[in-house]
Amino acid sequence: MTTAHEDDALAALADRLLAQSGDPREGLPEPVFRLASQLVPMVNVDLLIQDEAGRTLLTWRADELYGPGWHVPGGIIRFKETSAERIAKVAQSELGCTVAFAADPVALHEIMTPERNLRGHFISLLYACRTKTPPAPDRRADDSRPQNGQWRWHAGCPEQLIRVHEMYRAHIDRPHTFRHD
After folding, report:
1. Global pTM?
2. How confident is the model at residue 98, as a pLDDT?
3. Which residues of the chain have pLDDT under 70?
4. Can you give the pLDDT at residue 89?
């Protein structure tokens, strides 16, 4: 329990933080995002992009939180942003393409990483998608070692799937029937 003086001090600090954070619909400054991700669960969309042949489009990720590996493209929903808006932005920013997607998620997962507070709790919504335009060819991973942000079609779940996306292995190995509105 906090005192009235401590509450006033926290309110003043929160007001200063908000004043310096800009429009949260545009994303948060990194220190504010880090703080938020340690205080509340983050809600994100993940794009299960599959083609008619049943292949899944994954991107290579190599960072300090998840290490190197293939992952399902995704992003955290911003304040007052719809999941549809975030899906479109993720497809454009991570793949350079547009997608059609099912209105409802095909899966919902709660992810908690007990060993870490930073980005340690997510509610993930997995959406079945199809590309409407092809992914950017200059971001395609060749057969050598992939680079951060490159994409590749996969006929099944790759061995080097990042650990946090193991929950999607069955979805990657089994093509989804796709219907969109």
Report:
1. 0.89
2. 98
3. 178-181
4. 97
3-state SS record for 42-82: EEEEEEEEECCCCCEEEEEEEECCCEEEEECCEEECCCCCC
pLDDT tens profile 41-83: 999 999 999 999 999 999 999 887 778 999 999 999 999 999 9
CB of 167 within 8 A of CB of 109? yes
**Cα–Cα distance measured from residue 68 to residue 102, given in angstroms and rounded to the nearest whole number:** 29
pLDDT at 179: 62
Closest Cα partner for 72 from 179, 181, 173, 180?
173
What is d(CA 61, CA 148) in angstroms, rounded to the nearest whole number?
5
Distance CA 177, CA 58 (A): 18
Nearest to 128 by CA among 171, 64, 70: 171
Q: Is the dihedral of CA 81, 87, 92, 95 positive or negative?
A: positive
Query: Using an 8 Å Cβ cutoff, are 91 and 59 in contact?
Result: no
**pLDDT of the residue at 114:** 83
Write the CA distances from 103 to 87, 130, 144, integer angstroms. Answer: 11, 13, 36
The secondary structure of 124-173 as a DSSP string is EEEEEEEESSPPPGGGB--SS---TT-EEEESS--TTB-GGGGGGHHHHH
